[in-house]
């Protein structure tokens, strides 16, 4: 093998220009693969983060109405979960669950100085809900702070705008303004202090949501009993949502139901799958072009070096070693081409991120996601393709006889 490697190296060095052109051809193929793969991955990651990064990706709700006693004489039937242990069972079910939170939603009305506006009071386990809605980490709080007590509420920015149009101020950081909230269908009124406003980037939510604690939502309901509307989750791998929802549907009591983003946003999922297929097809065609280029060049090299191979065989070079010469050539070309291609692809990606930026925000126009594992896979595929493309020339050289070389000389 050492002799075959030495001969392969000499063949490559005796035609340096040709060797450099082949290495560049492989490098361009690998760099295109790295760049296109990083571009598509970045687009998909950004699209997923924007569309479902701040919402529940998998939700469990009650499929039946349960009685809730809100006074000694009044009981209402609503679709709520009353099993306190269920959320802990869900958290322990899978490591894919990144954030799990309980929620209790109440439809009601905000009243202030005679102006009434409908509100969806979202009672949340605020600490765990931050992992889903990212109020503080994504700086969605435009004024004030998160609620800390059961009698505090944070409203969508639409409330501030609408009340200001009626010359009613809703925000005072040092002396929080109070509002009255009553549940739809009830005459009972609860008083809340407004401690902040948020902007979720969706006008309908900014105009309708109020966020407080689970205790605050239960006060609006008029009960101290454990009730929640849903268990919301975000996953470390959002694309496992449908499979996990199916498992939970089969494992949970039939009085519960699940929903997940892969069903509710089927058009988004279809678009992501289309992007992945397009990216895969581009990379496959690039690899085919690289393989054909190397194979044709090495095949020509066999013809060019036929006299040398014939002489070496006359001197005792075995057919097996003659084959190894071209396999080593393919390997050497693949290694150098893959290294150069990775460097070129990463450099191209970094340059694209730095130069193709939005003039107003300074952020990249198209975000890239450079994955070390994907780069390693691209390099490995290029190396494998180079060795594969050397097989035919290797077989041809092994079958070449000294008499054939002399006859064609």
TrEMBL record:
GO terms for cellular component: plasma membrane protein complex. One of its GO terms (biological process) is lipoprotein localization to outer membrane. Residues 282-401 form the ABC3 transporter permease C-terminal domain. It comes from the Bacteria. It is found in: Cell membrane. Keywords: Cell membrane, Membrane, Transmembrane, Transmembrane helix. It is a multi-pass membrane protein. Belongs to the ABC-4 integral membrane protein family. LolC/E subfamily. This is Permease. It comes from Mariniplasma anaerobium.
């Amino acid at each position: 093998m050492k002799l075959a490697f030495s001969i392969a190296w000499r063949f490559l060095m005796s035609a340096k220009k040709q060797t450099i052109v082949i290495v560049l051809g492989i490098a361009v193929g690998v760099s295109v693969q790295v760049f296109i793969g990083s571009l598509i991955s970045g687009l998909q990651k950004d699209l997923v983060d924007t569309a479902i990064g701040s919402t529940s990706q998998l939700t469990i709700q009650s499929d039946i109405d349960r009685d809730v006693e809100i006074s000694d004489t009044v009981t209402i039937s609503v679709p709520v979960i009353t099993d306190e242990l269920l959320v802990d069972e869900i958290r322990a079910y899978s490591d894919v669950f990144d954030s799990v939170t309980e929620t209790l939603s109440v439809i009601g009305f905000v009243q202030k100085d005679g102006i009434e506006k409908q509100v969806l009071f979202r009672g949340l386990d605020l600490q765990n809900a931050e992992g889903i809605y990212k109020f503080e980490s994504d700086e969605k709080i435009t004024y004030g702070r998160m609620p800390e007590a059961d009698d505090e509420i944070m409203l969508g920015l639409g409330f501030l705008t609408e009340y200001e149009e009626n010359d009613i101020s809703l925000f005072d950081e040092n002396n929080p303004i109070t509002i009255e909230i009553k549940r739809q269908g009830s005459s009972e009124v609860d008083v809340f202090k407004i401690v902040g406003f948020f902007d979720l980037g969706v006008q309908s939510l900014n105009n309708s949501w109020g966020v407080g604690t689970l205790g605050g939502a239960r006060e609006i309901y008029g009960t101290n009993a454990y009730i929640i509307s849903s268990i919301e989750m975000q996953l470390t791998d959002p694309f496992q949502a449908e499979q996990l929802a199916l498992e939970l549907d089969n494992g949970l009591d039939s009085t519960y139901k699940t929903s997940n983003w892969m069903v509710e946003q089927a058009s988004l999922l279809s678009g992501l799958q289309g992007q992945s297929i397009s990216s895969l097809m581009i990379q496959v065609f690039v690899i085919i072009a690289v393989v054909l280029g190397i194979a044709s060049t090495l095949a020509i090299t066999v013809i060019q070096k036929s006299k040398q191979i014939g002489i070496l065989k006359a001197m005792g070079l075995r057919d097996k070693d003659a084959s190894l010469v071209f396999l080593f050539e393919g390997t050497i070309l693949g290694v150098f081409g893959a290294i150069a291609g990775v460097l070129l692809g990463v450099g191209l990606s970094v340059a694209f991120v730095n130069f193709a930026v939005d003039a107003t925000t300074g952020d990249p126009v198209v975000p890239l996601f450079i994955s070390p594992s994907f780069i390693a896979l691209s390099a490995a595929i290029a190396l494998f393709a180079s060795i594969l493309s050397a097989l035919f020339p290797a077989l041809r050289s092994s079958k070449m006889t000294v008499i054939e070389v002399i006859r064609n000389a």
